[in-house]
Design brief:
It comes from Nyctibius bracteatus (Rufous potoo). By secondary structure, the protein is an all-alpha fold. It has helices at residues 2-52, 56-155, 169-192. The relative contact order is 0.06.
Length: 196
């Protein structure tokens, strides 16, 4: 956005300079036409004086004025050519700046669309994260209930001492394995004695 503002300011400056140059160009063209009119008038006057064969001093003065006017016209034509060249350069600069402004705006719109897409994706991820957390809490709660029931069943058997502190999973597993081993031994003993 800052780049676009800067380009627009440059564009306004160049357009202002272009308008000023066009105005100067029109003024020069007007002056040039006036000088050409004066030159034609002086030429006509010179021709008229020649035809009337006025005195030589007047002819010299007219010729000098004529040369002076030709020189002014030549200078103004040169200045006009320079102004036309500058005008062409300014028009090229203005076109380039306009193209850069359009390019910057297009780039900005693309960035905005990409930002909006990222925000939408982020919202989707946040929603999925929330769903995952809820599911994880539900599973954790079920696991804790299941673990509590296992501990309760393991230490509620005859001869078992209830735990005095929080048990680790390994300790619960060892207690269950001990009960299983004892039952297997009891089963083998019954089997040896022939008791079904």
């Amino acid at each position: 956005t800052g780049a676009i503002s800067s380009l627009q300011r440059q564009l306004e400056i160049q357009e202002s300079q272009l308008r000023r140059t066009k105005s100067e160009n029109e003024t020069l063209q007007k002056k040039l036409r006036e000088r050409e009119d004066q030159l034609q008038a002086m030429s006509a006057k010179f021709c008229s004086l020649r035809e009337e064969r006025e005195d030589e001093e007047t002819m010299v003065t007219v010729e000098e004025e004529n040369c002076s006017l030709r020189q002014v016209v030549t200078e103004q034509e040169s200045q006009l050519a320079e102004q036309n060249k500058l005008l062409s350069e300014l028009q090229g600069t203005v076109s380039q700046l306009q193209a850069e402004v359009l390019s910057s705006r297009s780039h900005l719109h693309k960035q905005q669309r990409a930002h909006e897409a990222m925000q939408s994706h982020a919202k989707t991820l946040e929603h999925r994260e929330l769903q995952t957390r809820v599911a994880l809490e539900r599973i954790t709660s079920r696991f804790e209930r299941y673990r509590s029931k296992i501990i309760q069943a393991t230490f509620s058997t005859a001869g078992s001492k209830p735990p005095q502190a929080e048990l680790t999973d390994e300790e619960v597993l060892e207690a269950m394995q001990k009960i299983i081993n004892e039952r297997m031994e009891f089963y083998q003993m019954l089997k040896q004695k022939g008791i079904k």
